[in-house]
Amino acid sequence: AKIHNRSRYTYFTRDLGVEIRERVRMMHALRAAFEKDRLFIVYQPQVNMRTGNTVGAEALLRWKTEEGDFVPPDQFIPIAEYSGLIVNIGEWVLRTACFEWATLSKHTDTNFKIAVNVSQAQFSHPLFLRSVERALADSGIPADCLELEITESMAMNDPDALIESIAKLKAIGVRVSIDDFGTGFSSLSHLQKLRVDKLKIDRSFVNQMIRVNNDASIARMIIELSQSLKIDIIAEGVETQAQAELLISFGCDYAQGFHYSKPQTKNDLIIWLTNS
Ligand code: C2E
Ligand code: CA
Ligand code: CA
Ligand code: CA
Question: Where is the EAL domain (predicted)?
Answer without folding.
Answer: 23-276
